[in-house]
Specification:
Blueprint (H helix, E strand, L loop, with lengths): L26 E5 L7 E7 L2 E12 L12 E8 L14 H14 L11 E11 L4 H15 L9 E8 L2 E4 L3 H6 L2 E8 L4 E5 L2 E2 L3 H37 L1
Parallel strand pairs: 4-5
Antiparallel strand pairs: 1-2, 2-3, 3-5, 6-7, 6-8, 8-9, 8-10
The protein binds adenosine-5'-diphosphate.
Adenosine-5'-diphosphate binds next to helix 2 and helix 3.
Length: 244
């Protein structure tokens, strides 16, 4: 996140990819894309391409990690070596370890963990192509994959970032905006419960700008939530058609 004053918004008020400040990137979501997993989802958000797979609930190994009163959620966020222009080492980086924790913590409040004591669920997130905002898109996809696995949930989790580029508060930053822009505020929301499960900030914002960015990100989350529900419904229509 740098403070360089490169032009990211043109005279017409449009961004590098032609979007208005409050516009999301084009989003495509598909649920149930991996037949070996208990649940799965795929998301494209702009140039991001991300797969989420769920395995479990299952017995915990090693056994001492099991909790007597709840299930444990394990999460692995990983970027494929070919997901960015310069080959990324397949070994887990500090950033990936942090994002795995952040994504797990954003998902946990949505799950009835106490329904499955002594078990574990594994959440695998594989970023096939990255272009900014992958933690949010990963949360959006992983919560759908959990629902697809039939895990009892209080709500879906929808996530989206907002931030500041040039002097404008914008929604859903892509990589260049993330890198050159002044600030990035990723937010995850359980829209039905109206509860935030992730709120981070990278960069500098005034209090007023921060409020604006959070509200814009929440608006983005609600739009994404509508798309999540459509994607889940589409999955069930497909299942019904196969059964008939
Ligand atoms: P997020 O993807 O949630 O915005 P970051 O802000 O850490 O997380 O990363 C922003 C973007 O930087 C990523 O989406 C990706 O496009 C790019 N990026 C991350 N790690 C690397 C890397 N090792 N090499 C090249 N680009 C990277």
């Amino acid at each position: 996140m740098s403070q360089k004053s490169e032009k990211l918004i043109d005279k017409k008020g449009l961004r590098l990819d032609g979007r208005k400040p409050n516009e999301l990137r084009p989003i495509k979501i598909e649920v149930g894309v991996l037949s070996n997993a208990d649940g799965s989802a795929y998301i494209e958000q702009g140039k991001n391409k991300i797969l989420a797979a769920i395995y479990g609930p299952k017995e915990v190994h090693p056994k001492h990690l099991a909790l007597p009163d709840r299930m444990i959620l394990r999460c692995r966020y990983h970027m494929a070596p070919f997901s960015v222009q310069e080959r990324k080492s397949p070994a887990p980086s500090r950033r990936e370890i942090e994002l795995s924790k952040v994504i797990r913590e954003a998902l946990e409040p949505a799950i009835f963990l106490e329904y499955y004591p002594r078990t574990a669920i594994d959440v695998f997130v594989e970023v096939l192509q990255a272009d900014g905002g992958t933690r949010c898109a990963s949360i959006t996809a992983a919560s759908l994959a959990l629902a697809d696995a039939g895990i009892p949930m209080k709500d879906l989790v929808a996530a989206c970032a907002a931030g500041k580029v040039d002097d404008t508060i914008v929604l859903d930053l892509m990589d260049t905006e993330d890198k050159i822009g002044a600030a990035d505020v990723p937010v995850a929301l359980m829209p039905n419960l109206d509860a935030i499960t992730l709120l981070q900030m990278d960069g500098t914002l005034s209090l007023e700008e921060f409020e604006q960015a959070v509200n814009l990100a929440l608006e983005g989350c609600r739009k994404i939530y509508a798309m999540q529900k459509e994607a889940l419904k589409a999955r069930y229509v497909n299942v019904k058609e196969v059964e008939e």
